């Protein structure tokens, strides 16, 4: 595998799309400082998943996006793509070419792609893991990475060795295995908790199942006796129904006779009413004709008034037309005078314009001649000026060269003086170095004693820090224990909430109703136990007080309850009790109950302790409104005895005093199985969780305080360790100073000899410059004697010609302005003449319109007078017709009174018949009511049989002998025995079987999880063994290569990479031990810049020797090396370039010479990087 190319777009200074092609061997990236070379290494690290922006020389993520320049706008996104040749299958994908892309937008959104398919950053890390170019490898060494590698902690340095050893994938698998083990542990603990809770419930559930069997036997016997009673009542109702039906038939016959007589009277009345109706039509016709005549007369009078008003308006319009005609005649005379004046003005301005145009043409001819003369004078002057300029330029060059030679002679003299001073300074430096060497030896012993005292103080601080760390560990253990308790509480709360959501303990019928998917389900409010909130202290008492009523279902109305019962019947889901809000009524309390509530030890009524929605007040008042709550058994017993055992009292421990003197008590069932107790327990657990969370936060605060104390002690210890190390460094520094002083003395002697040679060279150069200065001064004297040509006369002639041309231009401008002004005046006169003609034409049209309006007015006035005369005549005729119609109407009303008297007689007879019919209908309705009552009793009896689960045939078969009293006594005895059984769970058997099956399932799940945990632990152990063996082997081989390469690069010395703890191979850090040739073992921080760079290069080459990476990018790691070491490093890179592709960012010539390809980075446009590629191998082939 190798890196083929890289594409950048909008990344840092690479604003435009830039493609870098990488060949095999070494590719050197060169360019001036600040041109953007290091941005290439940043781009490689960024696209391979680097998340720390500071490692990319930025402050925030968007700093990698091109920020714009003075001429370019900022980019909205940065994108980098790496193209890999994967023909050898190094990367675990089925592609011969792999393209890895990363894109970042200014909004903060980031995208990753592998072969243009979206992926995660984790996928990119896994793709490159154990290939030598993973996230933590040394494949990319940017600026300052050398210091970070050498200054890092041994534990951090180990990550680089793990990547080289190829165990990164193992570590990922191990972490995944440990995560699964932890998850399995949590699952096992959760199942154990659920098993414990289930085991607590199994005993009570078994008792409930046995109680259910007894209940079913007693309930079957009760149904048989109740069926017998219902069957007898049904027969009685059927006999009464037959008698009521006979009464109804008799009343029905009598009612039919009355209805027949009523029909005959109605027929006579209809005949009379028909005759009266015909007379009514005549009356209505006469009324209509009279009204019409009166209406027509009123309309004619209104029209006459309108015509009178119209005539007056027309007379006013005639006077207005007379005024308009006089105004039009006056305007006509004014327009004629204005036309004569405009014609005279237009002729005058036209003559003035012709004269002005002739003067303009003459001025233009004079201006052309003046301009030609000015151009000729300027050409002569320019020719002479050019000749004089050439002479002045030659004089300037000679004078400049002479001045430069004089300056160089002066600098030569100054340099000679400096050399003399340098010789004196070197002699003084040699003496100073000898003195410093003696002083450093004297200070060395004092520093050794001071370092010993600092190590003692550090040991004392370390002891205090360890004590604080132990205390912090104790606090953290307590915090973890509290967190475990909090998790357990949260788990139990979740289980209870799950039971609450599933209505656990509500019974099969209630669950069926609550889970129904029908239209009436919206009118179901819920279970009684779920519609209230009970303080935990009263949970046991109110649970006993409600009993089975806590599982009753509250509905909004009776119809919903009936629909739910039918639903249970259809699905054979059992029976339950419904409480409709519109039928359940509150029971009134007695005076004894009110007085008992004030007794000592009585807390109050149970309905007052609950909290619930106001809509359910009637429900809870009905169920608990007459139940008292006592704080103890003694108080309850005392109050019950005082009021003659007529009250129902429940105590806080669950003991209940019933009306009549009976007493109920004993142990209570598990809280989880009861709706009321479970809700109270859930509230209590939530309160405990809040308290535990507060205690955990207090413990966390103590932990933070102790951690701060430990960190302060740690800082003190670090300062003391730093002081001790500083003293050691100072001691080594003194040793190094003595050695340096000796070397400086030797260098000073060599420098003295070199300065003597430079002085001789300066003397020879000074003689050569003096000879050249003499030659330059002679040439300058000859040129200065040659006179320059005179340009004053030519300048005066050119000025005169220009002045004349300017005067002509001014005259020409004035004439042009005059012509333009006259042209505008002529145009305006013509425009005014045109507007005058239009106004004259409009005035003529206005006169024609005025004549037309005069004729139209005369016609309308004549028409109005004619119509007014005709309308007056018609009004006189219409008044005579109105008088005639009124006389006809009065005669008809006199003839109609006889028919009214006959109609009143028939109405009286009809009223008597209708009264008899009403009485019959009432008797018939009463009979129907009795029929409906008896039919309803029969239906209710049949429904009661159905509710008892019996048909009439089954009731006959299960009929029991005995009188009604005996049957009632037997039913009462069965109900009493059933009541003694207490609360019955209809699903007890199913719940018990389900609990046993759930227990078996939990046991199986627990066994499976424990088996999975054991397998995972075995896998993790195998991974640890494989990682240990592979890492130990890799460390040994890398250490051997490191020693060998280090010796060659340094010309000797020792270098080792060892574990900080040999017994803990998987977690121990890596310590690098360095001893350059001729020196003692030194800490990495004491190495010089060149030694540090060579050490990192040796380590990198050791990694490549053990596991060659596909490519390696280094950024100016040779900056601190001298030429010899640069050449040595380049030679090594050349040797390794066969297996590894090198990309080197450098300024050094030797490194460039070793490269196969040069990539040049420039910044022609400020802030924007450009690329230039040179293939050195191809150039060499062409050169040969």
Can you walk me through this structure?
The chain has 1184 residues and is of the alpha/beta class. The chain is built from 22 helices and 24 strands. Strands 2-1-4-5-6-7 form a 6-stranded antiparallel β-sheet. A 6-stranded mixed β-sheet has the order 8-21-22-3-23-24. It has a 5-stranded mixed β-sheet with strand order 13-15-16-17-18, sandwiched between helices. A hairpin with a 4-residue loop joins β16 (648-651) and β17 (656-657). The longest helix has 334 residues, at 168-501. The chain is flat and about 170 Å long. The model has no long low-confidence stretch (mean pLDDT 78).
Properties at a glance:
1184 residues; alpha/beta; six-stranded mixed beta sheet; single chain; flat; six-stranded antiparallel beta sheet
Kindly summarize this structure in a few lines.
This protein has 22 helices and 24 strands. With 1184 residues, the protein is an alpha/beta fold.
- Kindly state the number of beta strands: 24
Distance between the termini: 32 Å
The low-pLDDT segments are: none
pLDDT averaged over residues: 78
Number of helices: 22
Shape call: flat
Helical content band: 55-70%
Question: If you compute it from the alpha carbons, what radius of gyration comes out, rounded to the nearest whole angstrom?
Answer: 61 Å
Largest β sheet strand count, sense and barrel closure: 6 strands, antiparallel
Which strand order do you get reading across the main beta sheet?
2-1-4-5-6-7
> What is the strand content?
5-15%
Structural class: alpha/beta
């Amino acid at each position: 595998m190798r890196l083929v190319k890289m594409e950048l777009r909008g990344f840092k200074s690479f604003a435009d799309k830039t493609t870098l092609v990488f060949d095999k061997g070494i590719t050197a990236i060169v360019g001036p400082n600040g041109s953007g070379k290091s941005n290439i290494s940043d781009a490689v690290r960024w696209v391979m998943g680097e998340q720390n922006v500071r490692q990319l020389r930025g402050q925030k993520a968007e700093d990698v996006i091109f920020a714009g320049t003075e001429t370019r706008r900022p980019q909205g996104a940065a994108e980098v793509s790496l193209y890999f040749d994967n023909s050898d299958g190094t990367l675990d994908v089925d592609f011969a070419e792999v393209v890895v892309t990363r894109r970042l937008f200014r909004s903060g959104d980031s995208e990753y792609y592998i072969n243009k398919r979206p992926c995660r950053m984790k996928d990119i890390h896994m793709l490159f893991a154990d290939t030598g170019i993973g996230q933590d490898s040394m494949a990319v060494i940017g600026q300052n990475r050398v210091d970070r590698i050498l200054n890092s902690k041994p534990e951090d340095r180990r990550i680089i060795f793990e990547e080289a050893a190829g165990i990164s994938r193992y570590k990922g698998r191990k972490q995944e295995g440990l995560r699964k083990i932890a998850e399995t542990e949590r699952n096992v603990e959760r199942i154990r908790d659920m098993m414990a809770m289930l085991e607590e419930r199994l005993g009570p559930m078994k008792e409930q199942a046995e109680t259910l069997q007894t209940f079913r036997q007693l309930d079957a016997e009760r149904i048989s006796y109740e069926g017998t009673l219902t069957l007898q009542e049904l027969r009685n109702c059927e006999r009464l129904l037959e008698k009521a039906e006979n009464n109804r038939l008799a009343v029905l016959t009598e009612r039919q006779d009355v209805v027949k007589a009523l029909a005959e009277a109605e027929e006579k009345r209809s005949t009379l009413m028909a005759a009266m109706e015909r007379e009514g039509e005549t009356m209505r016709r006469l009324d209509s004709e009279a009204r019409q005549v009166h209406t027509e007369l009123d309309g004619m009078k209104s029209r006459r008034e309108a015509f009178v008003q119209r005539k007056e308006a027309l007379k006013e319009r005639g006077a207005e037309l007379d005024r308009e005609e006089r105004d039009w005649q006056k305007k006509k005379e004014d327009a004629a005078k204005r036309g004569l004046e405009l014609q005279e003005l237009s002729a005058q301005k036209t003559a003035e314009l012709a004269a002005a145009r002739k003067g303009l043409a003459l001025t233009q001819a004079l201006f052309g001649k003046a301009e030609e003369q000015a151009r000729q004078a300027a050409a002569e002057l320019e020719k002479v000026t050019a000749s004089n300029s050439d002479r002045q330029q030659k004089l300037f060059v000679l004078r400049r060269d002479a001045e430069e030679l004089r300056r160089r002679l002066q600098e030569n003299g100054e340099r000679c003086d400096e050399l003399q001073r340098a010789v004196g300074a070197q002699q003084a430096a040699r003496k100073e170095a000898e003195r410093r060497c003696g002083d450093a030896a004297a200070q060395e012993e004092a520093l050794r004693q001071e370092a010993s005292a600092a190590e003692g103080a550090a040991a004392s601080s370390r002891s205090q820090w360890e004590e604080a760390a132990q205390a912090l560990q104790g606090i953290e253990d307590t915090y973890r224990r509290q967190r475990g308790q909090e998790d357990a509480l949260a788990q139990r709360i979740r289980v209870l909430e799950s039971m609450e959501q599933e209505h656990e303990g509500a019974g099969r019928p209630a669950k069926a109703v609550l889970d129904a998917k029908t239209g009436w389900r919206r009118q179901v409010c819920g279970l009684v136990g779920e519609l209230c909130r009970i303080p935990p202290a009263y949970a046991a008492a109110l649970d006993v007080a409600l009993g089975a009523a806590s599982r009753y279902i509250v509905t909004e109305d009776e119809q919903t309850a009936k629909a739910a019962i039918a639903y249970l019947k259809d699905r054979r889901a059992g029976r339950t009790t419904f409480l409709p809000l519109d039928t359940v009524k509150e029971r009134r309390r007695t005076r004894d109950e009110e007085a008992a509530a004030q007794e000592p030890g009585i807390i109050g009524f149970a309905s007052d302790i609950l909290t619930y929605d106001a809509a359910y007040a009637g429900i809870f008042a009905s169920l608990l409104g007459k139940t008292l709550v006592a704080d103890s058994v003694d108080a309850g017993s005392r109050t019950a005895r005082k009021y003659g055992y007529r009250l129902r009292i429940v105590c806080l421990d669950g003991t209940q005093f019933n009306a009549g003197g009976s007493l109920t008590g004993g142990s209570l069932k598990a809280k989880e199985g009861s709706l009321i107790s479970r809700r109270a327990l859930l509230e209590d657990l939530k309160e405990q969780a809040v308290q535990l969370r507060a205690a955990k936060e207090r413990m966390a605060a103590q932990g933070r305080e102790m951690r701060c104390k430990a960190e302060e002690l740690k800082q003190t210890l670090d300062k003391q360790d730093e002081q001790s190390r500083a003293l050691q460094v100072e001691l080594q520094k003194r040793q190094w100073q003595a050695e340096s002083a000796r070397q400086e003395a030797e260098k000073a002697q060599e420098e003295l000899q070199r300065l003597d040679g430079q002085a001789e060279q300066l003397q020879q150069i000074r003689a050569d410059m003096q000879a050249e200065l003499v030659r330059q001064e002679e040439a300058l004297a000859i040129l200065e004697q040659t006179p320059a040509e005179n340009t004053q006369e030519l300048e005066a002639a050119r000025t005169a010609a220009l002045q004349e041309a300017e005067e002509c231009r001014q005259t020409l401008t004035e004439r042009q302005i005059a012509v333009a002004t006259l042209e505008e005046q002529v145009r305006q006169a013509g425009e005014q003449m045109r507007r005058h003609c239009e106004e004259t034409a409009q005035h003529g049209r206005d006169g024609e319109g005025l004549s037309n309006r005069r004729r139209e007015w005369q016609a309308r006035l004549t028409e109005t007078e004619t119509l007014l005369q005709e309308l007056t005549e018609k009004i006189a005729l219409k008044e005579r017709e109105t008088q005639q119609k009124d006389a006809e109407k009065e005669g008809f009303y006199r003839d109609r009174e006889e028919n009214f008297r006959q109609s009143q007689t028939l109405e009286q007879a009809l009223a008597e018949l209708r009264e008899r019919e009403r009485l019959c209908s009432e008797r018939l309705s009463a009979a129907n009511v009795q029929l409906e009552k008896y039919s309803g009793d029969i239906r209710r009896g049949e429904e009661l049989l159905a509710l008892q689960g019996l048909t009439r045939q089954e009731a006959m078969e299960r009929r029991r002998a005995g009188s009604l009293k005996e049957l009632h006594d037997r039913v009462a005895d069965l109900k009493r025995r059933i009541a003694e059984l207490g609360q019955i769970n209809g699903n007890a058997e199913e719940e018990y079987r389900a609990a046993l099956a759930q227990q078996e399932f939990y046991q199986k799940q627990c066994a499976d999880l424990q088996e999975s945990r054991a397998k995972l632990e075995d896998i993790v152990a195998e991974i640890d063994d494989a990682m240990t063996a592979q890492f130990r082997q890799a460390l040994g081989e890398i250490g051997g290569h490191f020693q060998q390469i280090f010796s060659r690069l340094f010309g000797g010395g020792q270098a080792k990479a060892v574990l900080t703890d040999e017994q803990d191979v998987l977690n121990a850090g890596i310590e690098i031990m360095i001893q350059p040739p001729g020196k003692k073992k030194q800490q990495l921080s004491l190495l010089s810049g060149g030694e540090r760079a060579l050490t990192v290069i040796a380590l990198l080459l050791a990694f490549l020797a053990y596991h060659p990476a596909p490519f390696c990018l280094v950024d100016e790691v040779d900056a601190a090396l001298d030429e010899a070491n640069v050449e040595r490093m380049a030679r090594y890179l050349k040797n390794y370039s066969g297996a590894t592709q090198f990309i080197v960012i450098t300024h050094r010539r030797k490194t460039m010479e070793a490269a196969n390809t040069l990539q040049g980075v420039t910044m022609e446009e400020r802030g924007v990087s450009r690329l230039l590629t040179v293939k050195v191998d191809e150039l060499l082939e062409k050169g040969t």
